[in-house]
Structures are given as C-alpha cells and as structure tokens.
Amino acid sequence: MKELQAIRAIQPLMKRHPWAITGMVVLGLLEALTEGLGISLFIPFLYSLDQTGLAPAAEGSLAQVLTSLFELIPAPDRLLIISLAILSLVLFKSVLSYGNGLLFSWVDTKLSHHLRSRVVDQLLRVGLRFIERTKSGKLWNALESETWTTADAVSTFIGLIINFATVLVFTTALLLISWKLTVVVAVVLFVISALVQLMTRRIEEMARANQQADQALSQRVLELFSGMRTIRAFNRQRHEQRRYDKTSWRVGRVGFQQEKLSGLIEPVSEFLAAALLVGVMFVMLNDNAGNLPAVLVFIAILYRLHPEVYGLDEGRAELVSKLPAVDQVMSLLGRADKPYVRSGDRPFDGLETGIEFAGASFSYDAEDLPAMRDVSVHIAKGETTALVGPSGAGKSTLINLLLRFYEPTEGEIRVDGTPLHEVDLGSWRDKIAIVDQDVFVFDTTVRANIAYGKLDATETEIVSAARQADAHDFINALPQGYDTVVGAQGVRLSSGQKQRIALARAMVREPEILILDEATNALDSISENVIQTSLQKLRRDRTVIVIAHRLSTIEQADQILVLDKGAIVERGDLGDLLRNNALFARLYDLQKRPAYLEESA
Ligand SMILES: Nc1ncnc2c1ncn2[C@@H]1O[C@H](COP(=O)(O)OP(=O)(O)OP(=O)(O)O)[C@@H](O)[C@H]1O
Ligand SMILES: [Mg+2]
Fold first, then answer.
1. Does the beta carbon of 132 sit less than 6 angstroms from any atom of ligand 1?
2. For the whole model, what pTM was predicted?
3. pLDDT tens digit string along 390-423?
4. What's the fold here for domain 354-600?
5. Residue 386 C-alpha to ligand 2 middle, in angstroms?
6. Distance between CA 560 and CA 353 in Å, rounded?
7. What topology is assigned to 15-333 in CATH?
8. Is the CB of 367 under 6 A from ligand 1?
9. Labelling 418: which of 187, 224, 335, 377 has CA 20 to 30 A away?
10. From the CA of 392, how far away is ligand 1's center (Å)?
C-alpha cells in the first residue's frame, strides 16, 4: 500500500516532535467531540421549542438522553440555557481549531526548515562525485520545493488521523440516533469512497509524471541562466525558447491532466452525498413526521460527516501524491548509498618535509580511462612545482586529489609520510589556498569576496592581499571601491579582474600551500609581472604548485612535471627538460613564440 509506504517514509520526521504531534491529534479529537455534542444539543433545543406534534424520543436513544439532561431546568429558561450551551461549545471549538491551526503551522515550519537545512548540509558534505553525477535540476528541485512538500506530508498525515477520529465520533453519534439508518448510509458512503479511490490511483501515476516534468523545467531554467552568454553568442535564442516552451508546456499539460481528474472528485462525491441526504429525509419523514428533531440532527451530523469522509479520501490521495517528493528528499538525505570523503583524525599544523604521490592512479568513473596513472612524485616543502601538459592531461585532477575532492583509486598521497586520508580534512584544507581554473566569485562586495579566504581578515590584511594580487588599483577605480557588489558570478568584472580577486582571496589566507590553476591565464602582461614579483616573494616560505602555460612562471619553478594522458612523462628543471627535447620542448617552442611577440610589442 502506497499510504503505508508514505507513512513509513515520514516516520523519522514525526519522531522529531512527538509532543506537538500528540497535541495536534488530541486537539483535533476534542474539536470533533465538541462539534458533535454541539450539533446534538439541537435535539433538546427542538424538543423544548414545541412538543406538540412531536413523537417522544425513543427510550435510551441519544435524543432521549440529551432531552432528559435539560428536564430539570424550568421550561421557560430551558431554551435560553440550551442556546447558551450550544454557543459556548461553538466558541470552544473555534478556539481549539485556531490553536490547532497554529500548532500545525509551527510543526510545518520547523520541519521544512529542518529538511532544507539537512539537504544543504548533505550537499556540502557529500563527495563531489555525487553532485557531478546528479542532475543539478534534480538537486535544486529537491531543495527548493520537495522539502516543503515533504514537511506538508506530515501535516497531511496528522490531518488524516484527525479526520479519521472525527469520522468515528460523528458515526458514533449517528449510531446513537438511529443505527439502522446509519448502516444504510454507511454502505452508500462506502460505495462513494470506493469510486473516489479508483480515481486516486490514476492521480498518483500522474503525480509522478508531474514531478518529472517539474525537474526537467528546473534543469532548463538552470541551464538557461548559466548558459546565457553561450546561447546568445551562438544565436540560439529561438532554439532555447522552443526547448523551454516545450518543457514548460509539458508541465502545464501534465498538471492540467491531473487537475481534470482530481477536480472531479469533489463535485462527484458532493452530488452523491446530497442525493443521500435527500434520500434519508424522504424515507424517515415519510414514515413518521414526528421524528423531526432526531432526523434533522441526524442529517446535520451526516452533512458534517460527509466532508470528513471525503477528506479522508482526499487526504490519502494527497499523502500518496506527496510520496515521490518524500522519497526524493529522504533518499537524498540517506547516507548509505553516497560517496563521502572521510576526514582523518590527525591534525595538520604545517608541512615539515613535503607531499608525496606514491603510485597514485585515479579515474572519475569506473568505465572512464584513468585521468591519472601511477603518479609518483615528491613535492618538497618550500619549493615551487610547475605542472605542464596538454589539455586533459590530468593537471587539475592532480590538484583535485591533493584537495581530497576525490580519493586515488590506487596508491596514495602522503603528507610528511602520513597518508593524506589519515589527516584531519578541515585542518588540511585550512592550510591550502587555491586559485581555481574557473574562478568563482560570490554576489557580494569585493571586500567580502577577498575576506572569504580568511573570514576575520582585517582591512589592512585585505588591502595588502589585494595589492599583492595587483588588484588594489582596479578595485579603487570601481564605483564603490571595496564595497562594490560584483553581481551574480561576478558579471561586473572582467575575467582578469575576477582572477586577481581570487588571487587576493588566496593571498589573504596566508596559506602554507598555494595552488594556482592557470591563475595567470587571463591576465595582461603588466598584471602578470606584478603578480610574478609577488609570487617570488610568496614562494620563499611557501610550497607552491602552479599549473601555468606562461614561461615566466615555469622558468621560476624548482621542479617541472610534464603530464600527458594522466601520467608523468618528464620531470626536472627547465634545463633538463629542454635537453630532453621531448614533449616539454615541443610545448615550450609553441609557447615561446607568442610570448616573445607579446613582450616585444
Ligand atoms: N569531474 C570530472 N568527471 C569526469 N571526468 C573528468 C572530470 N574532470 C576531468 N575529467 C577528465 O579527466 C581528464 C583530465 O582532466 P583534467 O581536468 O585533470 O585536465 P587538465 O590537465 O587540467 O586540462 P586543462 O589544461 O584543459 O585544464 C580529462 O580526460 C577529463 O575529461
Ligand atoms: Mg585543468
């Protein structure tokens, strides 16, 4: 049963607020009791109104019990007292209902916040491989909408329990008034419910299609945003519009299909219920008109019972329609089936001798060719190592492994002789600063972007880092200087400016190990020279790993590693490699010409 599956899925969430949830159910039950009693009091009310022409209530029936309750009160006051009793019950029920509404929304607020926060926690913790392999639209959708739906599912379920209790209370009242009539009505209601259930099953299938369509739309939107430049540059606006419209239309169509069916449930069951009420009146009053008070109250309760029974069906359908979202969120939060980078427990206080790759191999996917094959290399403390090689050679991969974004599939990386996976991850990354190949800047001020490298950096530290990265002058020229907001993905900056901010962010960290992944790529020669000078100063007490195609950087390196197809094919200093006259010499020749032209220009 899908309902049970859904209940099982939300169980861990219910356990978070056991008292609130018990309170919700108890309040809900009290509401039903109060309302049931309130309606039933209309029997003595009608009896005290006028007794002529009414048959006495049957011995032992609810009508009789309730009427006798008020017999002690003198006849002239009776009507007033009963009216007041009814009013008080209505008031009490309204208070209960408001209180319970608040409780519902409190639990909902707590749960949906908890889920969103847990999803983000998961996204920040889980191995990068998982994120790369899962469509971002799916993750986005889970965070942005499915967490809400999942929290809602809990409310829906509690609502169902209350619904059920209410049905029980009202049914008991009906049985007490006339059990025979109740049985007939129950059978008819059961048939209505069975009919609704048939429709529910179809809706559930549609909900799944709906969810897929939503995910596809989220994916389109994400790509639309991130690919805005590419789309325009290739003049693919119409193509994108068509793709978007198609996906968007599908969401609409699938939603409409679902609405066509789910919108039918209410009118159909309402009509059937109305027919039932008219039937009951006809049969009972045709038989004996003196039953009027009991019949009226029976019908009133039945009338209130109907939305509850209908709510029972609707609630189940709703719960089931939320199951895909609940499954998605819960499985996203599950830890068993996902890769994690485990932190070791040895704190890292700084390099003593160096970092060593010992026969390290790695492939991103089992079926892929290895991105790194049997790499053994020693990176000594305080030295500068340059990584060179054609595109796709595995340079960034080596750095990914060093940062422990991924684990080597074979061999290992050692830090001062300790396997890297035994080192505390946080303290390791705290000592590293990287300027990535794709610079990422946050949509905030320049100052905050630089201070991201050291959250408590002082103004002096920030400015000094900016100077070292040759960013100070251009930052001052910005409209609000260091307070300029750079825009989403740094749209207000050029690539070279973004890189200099990223460099400043790395500098402010005063890292033990500095990693530059083609950091000088987008810089002009003047900036590059300034940075080279800074780097030379920086190099003195730092271990630097730099991926650079620029000769000036390579020439400064103590050690050059030439990578090709994931393997180290040459190593040594500049002189060694030129004498070798192999891959490096070829790359060097290619590079030398444009670099030379640039310098003389
Ligand atoms: N996240 C990833 N998932 C799967 N494969 C990847 C991933 N990143 C890189 N690769 C593959 O690993 C190989 C090495 O890539 P890497 O990014 O290390 O190259 P690179 O030397 O940095 O190249 P470039 O100079 O172009 O930046 C490539 O074949 C690439 O397709
Ligand atoms: Mg790279």
1. yes
2. 0.78
3. 888 999 999 999 999 999 999 999 999 999 999 9
4. Rossmann fold (3.40.50)
5. 13
6. 18
7. ABC transporter transmembrane region fold (1.20.1560)
8. no
9. 335
10. 5
